[in-house]
Write a structure and sequence with these properties.
Length: 111
Amino acid sequence: MAVAVHLRPNHFDFGLRLGDGGPVEVYPGECVEENPRYTMTTQARAVVAAWLAKRGGYPGALVPGPGYLPGAGGYDDQEAKLLEGIEYCEASAARFLAYVKTLEKEGGVAE
């Protein structure tokens, strides 16, 4: 969810709850009652920051490039959990962007 919030912050432009307070689908197959923009954990934000750094070295980079990793050494020297998190972020980004593209075709979300 943290990846989705970063990639499309406008998709989450509502308060802590929607006006009617009911659940809303904000990610493929995932409905929430509270806006993840306000409820995501510090750890989730940290993993997304590491993923972004690896992708291109600066926040918002969507084109893979010569990024960096937070730990000393190369890819194989990083903590396994961090690498799993980075791989999960890549998969989540692809899944979310495909979902948004489908919604856009159906007229359900603005770019």
